[in-house]
Each structure stands twice: as structure tokens, then as C-alpha cells.
Amino acid sequence: MSVEYPKGFMDDFEKADMPDLAIPNQTIMWYYSGQIHIRNMLNDIQSELYPPQGMSWTNKERAVRGTALRDHFHDRLKAWRNLLPIGLQWSDDDPPSSDINTARLRAKYYGAQYIIHRPFLRHALDNNMQFQDSPSPQVNLGAAYQSRSSSYSPQEMERKNSSRGPPGQTQKEKIHQAEILQSARRCVAAAIQSTEAFDNIINRQRLIVTNIFGTAHAQFGNMLVLATTYKSHLTFLIPKAKLEHLFRRTINFLRSLEPVSKTLAKDATILERLRDVVFDEDHLSQSFSSDMS
User: Which of 23, 65, 261, 268 has its CA at 20 to 30 Å from residue 150's CA atom?
Assistant: First the structure.
């Protein structure tokens, strides 16, 4: 039986033959080839977008090299998604799939999107970048969580309004900062989508994937990044209610795997303690306001 790999696996997307999903096994073949394609892209991303172990890049090297590669990989990933047959396409507003193969494919996609844009979220965090209130480029990824999220608390609005860029910026600097913010938004949205990708499965049955440890530990890593973002000047990228939900579901998921992995049990303990630290300041602020009223 031949496997219909997306032509992007070798380079050309536009010449790929579309599988007939009505034919038995064609859907499974497409899921299989999609997993391989994104896995190979992840290998390229890791080797090209991140410096080799033991080496580091200057801010200028990261900006010049990283921006071009980010756009290249983002476009490749988008082209692959557009190539999917209609029966496998989805919207970022869709809830997590209850089909294991669909959920795995989407999780892999959002995981790649997260890895592509994570260096730019880190750049914004490390350099304490303050963003202007000027309109930023539109981001479709993660529109679901943004539209479904609850309103911001007073503390979040205060942090959001304090995130303003320095006066006297040139137009080029404003565009550069808008692009960094766009990547930061995409990274946060992808981390959320990747973490929640299996929720309509684990809520009903035991999750069966090739590497359950890798899946669970990746979600733990996502939570560290999201918590760091929330506690930074970029807190406006993730509402408190959404982060609370993510902490709760991820800790429960890790605890369910405690009998098979001491490492995942420790991950759950770390997140429980981190949750207390992340929300302690907000709790104290609310308590103080109540005492004063």
C-alpha cells in the first residue's frame, strides 16, 4: 500500500494529490503522513531556529536569523494546513476533537506553532519590551480562547494599561515591536491549544498515545511558559480565568498518571505550588480591597 505524503514533505505543496477520504484507509494514511511531515518540520525548526547546545546568539543575530526563519517555518506550516482535504480541516475556534487521530494531528500542529514563536515570546520577556497601544497585526491562531475568555479583572486591566511603549519611537521600531507582539500572541495561543488538544478525550477515557510521558511533560512545560507570561508585563496575553482553568486541568491530568511516572507526579506538585505563587498576589490584592471597603 502506498502512502500519500504531502508534497511539502519534500518541498512542493501545490503538486500534492488529494486523497479520496471515501476510500477505506485513506484518512488514516493522511493522518500518518501529516504526523511525519510535522515531525520532520519540528526537527528542522529545532536545528535552525534554536542555537546549538553550548552556543548562544546575540540579540542582533537572533533578530536577523530568527525573524526570517520564523516567517519561513510559519508559512510552511500554514501551507501544509491549507493543503489538508476539507474533511480534515478545522478552525481555531473549534472545540478539541473527540477523535484521537484528529486530536493528535492538531496537537502536533499547535506544538510546532508554539516552537516557532517561542523565541520571540522569550525575547519580549527577557528584554521587558513595552508595547505601544497601536494596532498589532491580526492573529487568527487562538481566536477561540480570546473570544471565549471571561473579562479581565481590575488587576489585569491595570497591568494591561501599563504596558506602553516609550515615546518617540520610529515607525520601523513600532513595526518591529508589533511583529514581536504578534509572535508572542501566537506562542501563547498555540501553547493553550496544544495543552487542551486532548481534553475531549481525557474527559471520557484514558488517553492512548505513542509517548504519554512526552505528551504530559510537554503540557507541564507549556504551563511554565504561560505562568511566566501571566506574571510579567505581558499578562494581558492570557486572562486569569483561562490560566486558572489550565492549571486545574493540567494538574488533574498529571495526577492521573502519577502511578506510572514519578516524574509526572513531581510535575504536578510543582504546578500546584506554582499556582499558589502565581495567584497569591491577586488573592492578597482582592483581600486588601475587601478589607478597605
Answer: 268
Range 139-164 burial, b when 16+ CB lie within 10 A, else e: bebbebbbeebeebeeebeebbeebe
Q: Is residue 266 a contact partner of residue 214, using CB atoms and an 8 Å limit?
A: no
pLDDT at 66 over 80: no
In three-state secondary structure terms, 237 is helix
- pTM score of the predicted model: 0.76
Q: Any long-range contacts for 82-85 (C-beta under 8 Å, 24+ apart)? A: 83/6, 83/8, 83/13, 83/16, 84/30, 84/34, 85/18, 85/19, 85/21, 85/30
Q: Is 54 exposed, middle or buried (0-12, 13-18, 19+ CB in 10 A)?
A: exposed
pLDDT tops 90 at residue 191 = yes
- The grid coordinates listed for 226 are 504561560
Between the alpha carbon of residue 17 and those of residues 5, 33, 38, 268, 273, the distances in Å are: 9, 13, 18, 45, 51
Cell digits of residue 123: 525575547
- Between 243 and 151, residue with greater pLDDT: 243
Contact 198, 211 (CB under 8 A): no
How far apart CA 56 and CA 52 sit, in angstroms, is: 8
Q: Say how many C-beta atoms besides its own lie within 10 A of residue 82's C-beta.
A: 9
Mean per-residue pLDDT, 31-40: 89
pLDDT at position 5 over 60: no
